[in-house]
Amino acid sequence: MSTTPIVQIRNLHKRFGRVHALNDVSLDVEAGEVIVIIGPSGSGKSTLLRCVNRLEVPTSGTISIDGVEIRGDERQINQMRAEVGMVFQQFNLFPHMTATENIVLGPMTVHKWERDRAVTLAHQLLDKVGIPEKADVYPEQLSGGQQQRVAIARSLAMQPKIMLFDEPTSALDPEMIKEVLDVMLDLARDGMTMMVVSHEMGFARNAAKRIVFMDQGQIIEMTTPELLYTAPQHERTKRFLSQILH
Amino acid sequence: MKAESHHKPAAHPHGWQQDDSAIIPRERSLMIAWWIAIVAAVIFIIGAAVLKPVPYSEIIVFIGDGLVTTFQITIVSMTFALILGLIAGLGRTATNSFFNILASLYVEVIRGIPLLAQLFWIYYAMSRFIRLGPQVSAVLGLTICYGAYIGETFRGGIQSIPKGQMEAARALGLTRGQAMRHVIIPQAVRVILPPVGNEFIAMLKDSSLVSVLAISDMLRRGREYASRTFAYFETYTLVALVYLLVTLIFSRVVYYIEHGMSREDKDKPVTLMHRLAGVVVDLVVLDFIGLIVYALIQPLALVVAEMPVYTVLLIVMLVVGLIYLLFFWTRIGRTPGMMAVGLRLYTVQAEHPSLAQALKRLWFLILPLPGLSLLWMLWSPTGEALHDRFARTRVGRD
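^ inputs. structure came back:
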């Protein structure tokens, strides 16, 4: 039953100048697990996620993906990134490409797929995220929720083993949050390994096995969503939850 | 009827539509002004040449040679200025502080000196160390000056792309080079192209300054003609009008480039003006290519005696033009000119056309001919090569 964790973070430190963004963070993520990370702004939760696919280079500590420790080697990093999808708060779709073109770029340039094969996959993925009719539309003409769903499809096109979500619903209008969360819930049910920075309690309750509370670059508390929301152990967690729950 | 008119103001209570309509007439009045200017210029030039051929058509033939030189100087200088500008722009965005300071120093120094003073300095002051010909000095001066401005344009273009774009591309597993090629540069080009087009127009006008270096550009040819015939009014009027005509054409092209880039305009119908603008861009691109071809053919003429250089050039450029067109057409469905003004012949999802289909579709587009200046060079009322014409028509100080 218990295999080696798919993501293994050990004693991770990250400094930005004088700011200690991550202070000795260790975390294991099992394959197929959904883990939600919460915490006040500046607590290092986004930095942690960005260290996992090495958009930020850790100051010290190790990260292993699927049993392989990630070092500074460019080729290894690119290979790892192809297996670790990331969804950003600001979507970051490529504005000069249609939805389909956005999705096929990864498989075609990284995996050297034929265009036809990539386009077929793109259409399947757009179907999966519920906007098959938007295949030939430019990001500008899409709503925020639709853009984020295209961004999720773009990441899925690389057929990643792990998906990182960096506040995927924070830039969305309230009525669009659900459509994105539904897609993420579907993914979770399909058994995708997910690390999600999000304060969406409903999603955490429904999908996450564990929830992590971070503050000042450290993991303060790690438990099930139910326990964290109902019976937080630490003073800082309580204070934070009282603020976001009103 | 009454009820309808009653409803109208309520539909737009905040009057935002009025703001909207205020923008459109301004654009329309610019368009109308452009048409008036270009039609008036064309009518005046043609009318004068037909009705009073004695000075006017003579002047046109005389300064026509100068226009070729103006184009050539501009195209050559622009080529080098783009290269220099790219280096300067990359230097200005570099993290390495040595290159950054070096590039910044270049930009600061050059932008602080007038082009005319730079030209004088390169041609006269530098002759103490190295004697450069007028052509080389002119190209060098324009290149160095415009390299600085274009460098700033490039820097602005690259820096205008949000950081998240590079991150998203890298997160997919693309290498830095792939991300640059597929994500950053296509977006940066959209930002950069209109100002570079404007720099091109500015350079075309500023190239008149090289006439002080005894280069027979259009302005100097006009001066030569006027000093011989004392027809100052007629000559300089025509010189000004020809500059205006050329500038108007290019400014319209830049306008289409700017507007073709924005996505909303994609749905608007493609007009003949769009197509023509695309063709002009293709012609300029082919002009750049023609320049290289010309540089390759010339030494060949030294080896092969009696080679008809200009005929060979024309044939080569026609072939190059055809290949250029078909290459882009079959691969991405558009020529660079069409891309620049935002034209597409088929949607991305459609099948790429075969070579035969592309050939068939050529009917729909005017085949971009070899570069403008090369055509000019070949065109001659007497059938002489351009440099011979220069030799013959040079006016002495009598």
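Chain B touches chain A through 22 residues (CB under 8 Å). Confidence is low (pLDDT under 50) at residues 1-21, 345-350, 363-373, 379-398 of chain B.
thumbs up if we can close this ticket
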